[in-house]
């Protein structure tokens, strides 16, 4: 399929049924969410719908979302609320409202370049049907800087060499909706712990492959480096990479689940924002 054929196929598909929905959960993101929403509105391939899921914010995040909704009446934007603590609850609520062929999960503190969805959908719709997802590589530096390009290239290469693992975060996931629902989607009943973005990819890989591409990137905030208290440790990371896919069920549901329970690393702990100074809280 050529580029022009892809564009024609997307145009035809959009007339028949929604192709792409964005689900964006947020909790107290007033400093970042405005810029993130503007980057979504500037996409060359605009999503058919943006579902914004408020996870109990107490700052101006919802107000910013409503202003964005009012100023972009040409985009179908839905704001829903799920006060249950935990990103996985917000994701679960957002998924229920999706009726498009593909769903993208975005984070409120991340910049998505204008070509992001166009490239993701090109990868997915031009495949031979074996792709169930495309994942954007998260970078903190400028994309064309040495550090930025090196990380993009590394992500693409590792994504090919270690194809049965997850190599990026939940901020960059675009999934086939039917496959996502087949595996149970984001669910606190299936996985209420931290590292939900890697666990969902493990289940998605049961239905097909995941694509990575050096040009499919998004720029995350640099505050993510300060989340050691709500993440896995170096030993768990190394074992994840060394465990073959045939044993990944054991890794997640016997090994990692037990260790996360012992450390109380529940998904709701991701609401903690350690980058905030005491004065800001």
Written account of the structure:
This protein is of the alpha/beta class and 281 residues long. The chain contains ten helices and ten strands. The chain has helices spanning 3-16, 33-41, 61-71, 87-96, 116-125, 146-161, 177-182, 196-204, 234-242, 248-263; strands at 20-26, 49-54, 76-81, 102-105, 110-111, 131-135, 137-139, 173-176, 209-211, 217-220. It has a seven-stranded mixed sheet, sandwiched between helices. It has a three-stranded mixed sheet with strand order 5-10-7. Helix 2 (33-41) links the parallel strand 1 (20-26) and strand 2. The longest helix is centred in the middle third of the chain and has 16 residues, at 146-161. 40% of the residues are buried. Mean pLDDT is 90; it is low at 1-15 and 277-281.
Produce the secondary structure layout.
Layout: H1 3-16, E1 20-26, H2 33-41, E2 49-54, H3 61-71, E3 76-81, H4 87-96, E4 102-105, E5 110-111, H5 116-125, E6 131-135, E7 137-139, H6 146-161, E8 173-176, H7 177-182, H8 196-204, E9 209-211, E10 217-220, H9 234-242, H10 248-263
Parallel strand pairs: 1-2, 1-4, 2-3, 6-9, 7-10
Antiparallel strand pairs: 4-8, 5-10, 6-8
Helix pairs in contact: 2-3
Brief synopsis:
It contains ten helices and ten strands.
Termini gap: 52 Å
Low-confidence stretches: 1-15, 277-281
Overall 3D shape: globular
Percent of residues in beta strands? 15-25%
Strand sequence of the main sheet, in spatial order?
3-2-1-4-8-6-9
What radius of gyration results from the CA coordinates?
18 Å
Helical stretch tally = 10
Q: What fraction, in percent, of the residue positions are helical?
A: 25-40%
The ordered string of helix (H) and strand (E) elements is HEHEHEHEEHEEHEHHEEHH
Structural class: alpha/beta
Biggest pleated sheet = 7 strands, mixed
Mean pLDDT: 90
Quick one: how many beta strands?
10
């Amino acid at each position: 399929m050529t580029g022009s054929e892809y564009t024609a196929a997307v145009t035809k598909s959009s007339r028949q049924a929604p192709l792409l929905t964005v689900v964006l959960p947020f909790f107290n993101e007033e400093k970042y969410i405005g810029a993130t929403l503007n980057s979504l509105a500037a996409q060359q391939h605009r999503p058919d719908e943006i579902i914004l899921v408020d996870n109990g914010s107490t700052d101006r995040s919802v107000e910013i979302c409503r202003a964005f909704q009012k100023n972009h009446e040409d985009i179908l934007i839905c704001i829903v609320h799920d006060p249950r603590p935990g990103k996985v609850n917000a994701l679960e609520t957002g998924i229920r409202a999706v009726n498009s062929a593909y769903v993208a999960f975005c984070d409120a503190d991340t910049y998505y370049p204008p070509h992001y969805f166009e490239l993701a959908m090109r990868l997915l719709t031009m495949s031979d049907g074996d792709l169930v997802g495309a994942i954007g590589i998260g970078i903190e530096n400028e994309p064309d800087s040495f550090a930025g390009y090196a990380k993009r290239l590394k992500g693409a290469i590792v994504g090919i060499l270690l194809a049965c693992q997850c190599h990026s975060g939940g901020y960059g996931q675009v999934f086939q909706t039917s496959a996502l629902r087949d595996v149970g989607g984001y669910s606190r009943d299936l996985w209420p712990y931290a590292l939900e973005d890697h666990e969902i990819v493990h289940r998605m890989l049961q239905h097909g492959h995941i694509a990575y591409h050096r040009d499919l990137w998004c720029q995350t905030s640099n505050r993510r480096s300060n989340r050691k208290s709500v993440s896995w440790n170096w030993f768990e990371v190394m074992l994840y990479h060394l465990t073959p896919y045939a044993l990944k069920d054991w890794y997640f549901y016997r090994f990692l689940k037990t260790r996360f329970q012992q450390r109380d690393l529940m998904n709701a702990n991701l609401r903690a924002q350690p980058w905030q100074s005491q004065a800001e809280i």
